[in-house]
Design a protein that fits this description.
Layout lengths: L1 E7 L6 E5 L2 E5 L8 H14 L6 E5 L5 E6 L4
Length: about 70
């Protein structure tokens, strides 16, 4: 599965919202040193109930708009 994700770093709390065809993810970590990206993967793994290694950021490592792929084999 591939998702469009919009990340908002330095939020007051962690949460995930569905906005049309995009997931809007609020993370408390700042965007420096990849902290927000690692917290994004943690949140998505808990939300979709998959392991962290099954989630990959395909594009947008240094952007708020990301393309995230989840390889969940059933």
């Amino acid at each position: 599965m591939i998702f469009n994700v919009r990340v908002s770093p330095r939020a007051s709390r962690n949460r995930i919202e569905q906005v049309r065809d995009t997931l809007k993810v609020y993370v408390t970590k700042p965007a420096s040193d990849g902290l927000a990206n690692s917290q994004l993967i943690d949140l998505l793994s808990g939300h979709f109930k998959v392991k962290k290694y099954q989630i990959r950021i395909k594009s947008g490592l240094k952007s708020r708009d990301k393309l995230v792929e989840i390889n969940a084999t059933i």
